[in-house]
Amino acid sequence: MVSDPSIVSVQELVKEPLDSIPESFIRLDQTRPHVLPSKSDHIPTIPTIDMVKILEPSDRSLNDELERLHFACSEWGIFQALPQPPGAESSFRFAFLTVLITQQLVNHGVSLSLLQKLGLEIEEFFKLPLEEKMKYKPNPGESEGYGNVMRSEKNVLDWGDRLFMAINPISLRKPHLFPELPAPLRSSLETYIKELKKIALQILRSLAICLHIDTNVIMELFEEEKEFQALRMTYYPPCPQPELVIGLTPHSDATAITILHQINCVNGLQVKRNGVWLPIDILPDAFVVNVGDIMEILSNGTYHSIEHQVMVNSESERMSLAMFFNPKLDAQVGPAASLISLKNQALFRNITMNEYVQGLFSQKMDGKSYLDRMRITSSEQAKET
Fold first, then answer.
1. Any idea where the Fe2OG dioxygenase domain is (predicted)?
2. pLDDT in the model for residue 349
3. Residue 72 needs a FRET pair 20 to 30 A away by CA distance; which of 105, 256, 300, 311 works?
């Protein structure tokens, strides 16, 4: 049994057969838009473009690849990063999809052996006795830690257990969380964090070029050793009535970018486009990269954060690891100055990253509502002019 009544473990809940779903998880009021089947003929085959053309480009190849990248971020806002094929040369690639909202980053450069080792260690973490996992429970009034929390405005629980924690700057690490993880898992995560940081910075540089923003401006926001970075490990157990619950409440990420690794090849991620939830068929050992709210703000609305959710099923567990990349906490976040003019007014207000984070954790997840709070209203724009 859970020793702390404020912490709910779905994993413990399903250890015994359930006659019914607890009311705290049921979303009867939820309107579920049409979901396009993942094997639908409407989803085209995904072509590829080389990131090598961005890293070692000719003038034409660079322009072509950046145009494709720019189109994907401005129209959709989600990537899929694929592992490097065995025997292939080390490189980065993007695969581009013009209809589904997905772009794929191929040859992401993180070794498959690390991904496999890390996946096994995360699985072992969730297999720990509940008493052990409860050592990582959140402190009163805080969001970091292990368990399940009320994430929606309707006070309904998600069907999943997670371990959420800040990891950079190192000074933000809670003493009872990352430093106390099992040693093998902690070591693998340290390596993984460094590798994904390289990928994230390369993506951010490329987006700055696409937006005609000085890359030094973007890199200053993500200053080495000061950038705000967090991770979330999530375990989604099977549910006997998956149509009544949701694994992760619909939302957009309040980040610059998020890099997701689906650990055990069980799908469930969906993204929203024109009121339709589209399932993402994630390839083995791939990464999914979301454009977050902060990137929408920095680009002054040119790029769009993607609203997404996670659905569960009745047969298979699902595990994932999400890495959240954000500017340093003392950074001033707002539309890039080079994008603002009399003809192109700022759509979002300026705010310090620290204030942004405090506001984020003071509210429940609800679509893109937090981003909407950052928007400058028409009356505010009129006063400026």
1. 227-327
2. 95
3. 311
